[in-house]
């Protein structure tokens, strides 16, 4: 994807429905503040504690909370589908960036491309890091398709049902609009895969992780995998690990 736009202060939007922010979400937010971005966090918790410099917004401005209860009652995995629709709506309305709260910005400024998204593989484009202009026709189509799918979707009890509004749908829409060729390679934003999550915590792999991320834009910490890996959200990274190094910076 060709970077042709001049550098200016970027607006980066985040969405959070979980408990109080851990120091990992705070690391994510601060990495974007350090890159000179304006960080805007949407939450249904109007009293959520956020780092200095982060703007807290009511997620109800984007999507009423009862949409989640209506279509995903009894399934925590339904949070993913609600988050997917929220991020599409915020980008279509405001433009700029959407970023998951387990993503760390690795540069001192954000890529200045008009659009940004990166691949998971040859067929799928991830939706955890995206940039679009406001009013994008592709996003309008994406939202319309998502709103058609959600009422008829199965409860979010399986992985396929959980991601029904996520990367598979985004990938189809971008392909239909002729935009999939603009996707960045997986290495630019997702070099460390979900299967390698423990590498962030392993002191013996710190040098390897640092070298692999040296010329990358972002890295995803994959906190959705932490429960399976038995990593508690309040777990301090081992001394000498890549994450320990990031906190010390």
Secondary-structure blueprint of this entry?
Elements: E1 11-16, H1 23-34, E2 38-43, E3 55-58, H2 66-72, H3 78-94, E4 96-99, E5 103-105, E6 129-132, H4 137-149, H5 159-162, H6 167-176, H7 186-190, H8 206-212, E7 218-220, H9 242-248
Parallel strand pairs: 1-2, 1-4, 2-3
Antiparallel strand pairs: 4-6, 5-7
Helix pairs in contact: 2-3, 3-4, 4-6
Produce a short descriptive summary.
This protein has nine helices and seven strands, in the order E-H-E-E-H-H-E-E-E-H-H-H-H-H-E-H.
Primary descriptors:
33% helix
Walk me through the structure.
By secondary structure, the protein is of the alpha/beta class. It contains nine helices and seven strands, in the order βαββααβββαααααβα. The chain has helices at residues 23-34, 66-72, 78-94, 137-149, 159-162, 167-176, 186-190, 206-212, 242-248, and strands at residues 11-16, 38-43, 55-58, 96-99, 103-105, 129-132, 218-220. A five-stranded mixed sheet has the order 3-2-1-4-6. The chain has a two-stranded antiparallel sheet with strand order 5-7. Strand 1, helix 1 and strand 2 form a beta-alpha-beta unit. Helix 2 (66-72) packs across helix 3 (78-94) and helix 4 (137-149) crosses helix 6. The longest helix is centred in the middle third of the chain and has 17 residues, at 78-94. The two termini are 30 Å apart.
What portion of residues belong to β-strands? Answer: 5-15%
Oligomer: single chain
- Mean pLDDT reading: 90
The assigned structural class equals alpha/beta
What sequence of helices (H) and strands (E) makes up the elements?
EHEEHHEEEHHHHHEH
The number of E-state strands comes to: 7
What's the shape? globular
Largest sheet: 5 strands, mixed
Portion of residues within helices: 25-40%
């Amino acid at each position: 994807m060709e970077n042709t736009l001049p550098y200016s202060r970027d607006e980066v939007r985040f969405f959070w429905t979980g408990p109080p922010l851990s120091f990992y979400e705070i690391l994510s937010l601060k990495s974007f503040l350090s890159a000179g971005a304006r960080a805007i966090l949407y939450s249904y918790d109007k009293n959520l504690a956020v780092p200095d410099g982060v703007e807290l917004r009511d997620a109800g401005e984007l999507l009423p909370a009862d949409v989640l209860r209506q279509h995903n009652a009894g399934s925590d995995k339904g949070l993913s589908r609600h988050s997917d629709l929220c991020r599409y709506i915020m980008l279509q309305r405001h433009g700029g960036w959407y970023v998951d709260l387990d993503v760390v910005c690795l540069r001192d400024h954000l890529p200045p491309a008009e659009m940004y998204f990166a691949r998971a593989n040859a067929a799928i484009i991830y939706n955890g890091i995206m940039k679009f202009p406001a009013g994008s026709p592709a996003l309008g189509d994406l939202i319309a398709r998502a709103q058609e799918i959600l009422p008829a979707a199965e409860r979010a009890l399986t992985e396929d049902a959980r991601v029904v509004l996520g990367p598979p749908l985004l990938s189809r829409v971008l392909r239909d609009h002729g935009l999939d060729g603009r996707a960045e390679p997986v290495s630019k934003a997702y070099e460390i895969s979900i299967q390698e999550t423990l590498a962030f915590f392993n002191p013996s792999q710190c040098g390897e992780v640092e070298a692999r991320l040296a010329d990358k834009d972002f890295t995803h910490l994959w906190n959705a995998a932490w429960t399976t890996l038995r990593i508690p959200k309040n777990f301090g990274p081992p001394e000498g690990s890549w994450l320990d190094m990031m906190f010390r910076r």
